[in-house]
Amino acid sequence: MLEVELNKHFTDLENRFDARLSAVLAVRRTEVSAETTGFSAKYECRVKAQYQKDLMGLLEEGMLLAVRNFKAKKHGNKRFTLLEISRIGPEHFGLQGLSDTSYYPYQFEIIEQSMSDWDTDDKATMMIQISAIPLNYDLIITGNDHQYTKGFTYPVVGERVFILNKNTIHRMYNRQLLQELGLPWDDSKIVTDPDARKDPRIGVIKMFQEEKEPIPIYVSYERLARYHFGVFSFTGGGKSNLVSNILRRVLYHTKDTKVVIFDISMEYPFLLQDVFADKSMKSKIITEIPVADPEHFRKIIVTPRKFEKVDITPTLQTIWKLGRLGHYVEGTDHPPTYEDVLEDIKRLSEDEAKRAVSLNAIASIKIKVLQWIKEHKVERSQTVTKAFLDYLQTEAVAACDKFKVWKTGGLYGWASTRAELANFLEPEEEKKKDDNSYSAEKLVELLEGDTRLLCLSIVEPSIVKQLAITLTSDMLRHRKRQFQVDPQILFVFDEAQEFIPAYDKARGIDSTCTQRIETLLRQGRKYGLGGCVATQRIAYLNTNALQQLHTYFVGPLPRPYDRSLVSSTFTIDQGILEKTLEFAPGQWLLSSYIATGMENVPIFITADNSEDELEKPTGKSGA
Q1: C-alpha triplet 115, 120, 122: angle, nearest 5°
Q2: What is the pLDDT of residue 310?
Q3: pLDDT value of position 36
Q4: In this predicted model, what pLDDT tens digit does every residue of 300-343 receive, in sequence order?
């Protein structure tokens, strides 16, 4: 039986769980590179629980345990070290003493006789062994309430071990967030709803799942978006489903956060069709080619297998009638800006670093460009004019002549051809020809307007990568100049290996793309610009960019190197990560430095299924 004063915070699973801390072991760490070995907790705790036939079906990896520590006496014996279960296994005394060298018929007889023991409550013959890792938090109970103190306190070996009950877990992860969201908090019962528009929960915690009332899990969507998050899982793990689930809630449960999706797989027009069909949510889908009609639209988007034979024509017609569709136009879509000219000058100075006369000419050209910008009071992000290009060519050629730059060299060739860029300047009348065509410049205007959701469903890698470079660079540059933070903009990079590859694998536009997005992730949170990175092969990604993520959802990653990289990058214990290999689609390991109720405490969750939201507008449930 639990002590009366602890009953509010802990559970013994109806008198089934009786356990003691048997050992605290220091974990040896190798000196090999962390990317190949991953991260291990400093200590591992061993717990021995008395056997009970139903207990193995109730205990789950990921459950949180509490055991009194050496600071408990200063707090009325109510200070506990928190642990997370990483491994559970039953032991049979007879089988433990069985040797492989024993007489074979004797071995089989002992094994067969042990079968019937598992259906009893024989505590003399059987025991449950539990491995747990410290969370680096202490729980301090004060009356009916409790508080958490960060840091590790050595637990007392031999002390009784307790399981945190449902309400304690709910308070731990959700009370603060629900109060921030202005939602009601009821300490006596758990109230939750899977409907994305009614309840901002992201899913339910994978604990006490045998009971009727699930424990919801909430995150701060503003901090989730602003401080970047990642979704990592192998094919079929439900990455796109989870991302669309999160985005739907970001849009409906934040004041004005905007979302930009770089959708190279053409999945999100379907997964977010209910949002695109919502008249109150201003949104736009940009495709690579013009869409003729709703039937054509259905053919070019990717549909989950579950919905392949479902008639979604009414929803697509609504999207069509609301004018949600547009197409991307290349060519004159990105005329040069003053910033582009300065970037060219920077690259020229790097290329000509060993030629003093060239550097003098380049410095002179840069001064002339900055003088023009100052005198004409233009922003660097603005498109250049024909007058500026004529001026630039005149001054650049004069500087090259003055400093005797070779006329057959690259610098002189650049200087003498600047006026030719006028061919890329789009006449005003051309801009107004097609209301459904969108250049990069018009997409930036959409983001600066009242559009909340922009989905760039373009399968050509070079086009969508150039858009990622342009939009992220332009928005970051604009926010820096204005020192603007609101509204927040979340850039979503699904199939992230296409956008932020490791530097040793990046060439050409890939190198530029990974560099620009890394810059966005490094600097964007100061200006309200966030990023979402989703991929199945984390080993191929730019690790500098990954280290900027503050929240991560990890699904099954079969390759050991991927798990080791996640472990070392995000300091998740390898033992906890191994559990993800058993996950079904939609189950995730969630940990966050800033967006959850408990900082950097990994927890197993089952995310709400985004496809359930789609059944409402498509009418599938009635089919």
Answers
A1: 105
A2: 86
A3: 46
A4: 999 888 888 888 889 999 999 999 999 998 755 467 888 889 98
Q: At 86, give phi and psi (nearest 5°).
A: -110, -20
Residue (of 16, 45, 13, 2) closest to 158 by Cα position: 45
The ranges assigned to domains in the chain are: 4-164, 221-333+434-622, 338-425
How many Å apart are CA 354 and CA 364, to the nearest integer?
17
CA distance 105 to 544: 59
> What are the backbone angles phi and psi of residue 425, rounded to the nearest 5°?
-80, 125
pTM of the model: 0.80
Alpha carbon 190 to its chain's center? 27
Mean pLDDT of 68-83: 93
User: What SS3 string covers 68-110?
Assistant: EECCHHHHCCCEEEEEEEEEEEEEEHHHHCCCCCCCHHHHHHH
* Burial (Cβ within 10 Å: 0-12, 13-18, ≥19) of residue 561: middle
Look up residue 85 and give its two tokens: 């279960």
Span 173-193, pLDDT tens digits: 998 898 888 887 776 778 888
Q: Which two tokens stand for residue 453?
A: 């959701």
Task: Write out the DSSP string of 472-516.
Answer: HHHHHHHHHHHT---S-EEEEESSGGGTSB-GGG--THHHHHHHH
* Backbone torsions φ then ψ of 101, nearest 5 degrees: -90, 0
Does domain 221-333+434-622 sit in CATH 3.40.50.720? Answer: no
| pLDDT of residue 433 exceeding 60 | no
Alpha-carbon span 339 to 54, nearest angstrom: 68
Q: What is the mean pLDDT of the chain?
A: 87
CA–centroid distance for 279 within its chain: 28
Quick one: how far is CA 385 from the chain centroid? 41
- Give the closest residue to 551 by CA, choosing from 618, 600, 588, 518: 600
Say how many C-beta atoms besides its own lie within 10 A of residue 388's C-beta.
22
Tokens 């009356």 -> residue: 143
Give the span between the Cα atoms of 30 and 346, in whole angstroms.
Answer: 44
% of the chain with per-residue pLDDT over 90: 48
The H or E element that residue 359 is part of is helix 356-376
If 0-12 CB within 10 Å is exposed, 13-18 middle and 19+ buried, where does residue 263 land?
buried
